[in-house]
Amino acid sequence: xxxxxxxxxxxxxDDLPLAELxxxxxxxxxxxxxxxxxxxxxxxxxxxxxxxxxxxxxMLPDIDGFNLKEMLEEHFLCPIIFLTALSDAxxxxxxxxxxxxxxxxxxxxxxVLLARIRxxxxxxxxxxxxxKIIISDLVLDKKNKTxxxxxxxxxxxxxxxxxxxxxxQNQGKLLSREFLFQTIIGREYNGLDRTIDARTSRLRSKLxxxxxxxxxxxxxWGKGYLFTYTKTGD
Length: 234
Description:
Layout: E1 8-12, H1 16-28, E2 32-36, E3 53-56, H2 65-75, E4 80-84, H3 89-97, E5 102-105, H4 110-124, E6 127-128, E7 132-135, E8 138-141, E9 146-149, E10 152-153, H5 158-169, E11 174-175, H6 177-185, H7 195-209, E12 215-220, E13 224-229
């Protein structure tokens, strides 16, 4: 079975022997790793550097991983796996409720870690074709202009669907107002028209009313909008 290639992983781990072991093993499997030993070292990573996945220890020397997660999301648009010795159920629940895609308790066998990484990358990866986009249990059918979540039909208008389709095509990517305007309206954005803002606000409100955990359309002030969906409760 083919796996995701050219995968870049950020490893945040202060246990240097463990970090070296993880780096060696995952590198031998074709993954590219960047390692930092402190959470706040993310400030030294270029904004142009993107990752497909973050492995983050919780018990870091400068900031715990739970508090670091919000900063990670501001810097990088990718799933986060907590890798930690904290095995209490409350810690695991907290990590998952914060939006981590997985919570792995140390010690973990390298081959098991690899399997969990592969499974979570497959889960986070959108499957896009000409007529359908499948992101976990969210399915967009362009031909029929329908959206289902876990086989349940969502009540969306054709305008809602059009905008959601574009967001889903670009899951995890920051989309500018200019790009959305040009794609949907079909002409250059004049800097004043608020059509995209209104449609995005309406779609976001509708999705929030449907109470879909893990589905977010985030406003990045001065830059645009970001769509992510991570199924929770697996």
